[in-house]
Amino acid sequence: MGNLTNNVCRVCDSTSLGEPFIAREMMFGMRDEFKYVTCSDCSSAQIAAVPPDLSRYYPADYYSFSTTGSDRKISLRERIIWKLISSRDMHALGKRSIVGAILCWLKRPSQNLVLFKKLKIKKSARILDVGCGGGALLDVLAAGGYTDLLGADPFIEREITTSRGVKVLKRELQETPGVFDVIMLHHCLEHVGEPSKTLGVIRSKLSPDGVCIIRLPTTSSEAWERYGANWVQLDPPRHLIIPSREGMAIMGDNNGLKLVETIDDSSGFQFWGSEQYLQNISLVRNGITDRLDKPALTISKQKLREFDHLAQDLNRSGRGDQAAFIYRRA
Question: What predicted TM-score, i.e. pTM, was given to this entire model?
Answer without folding.
Answer: 0.86
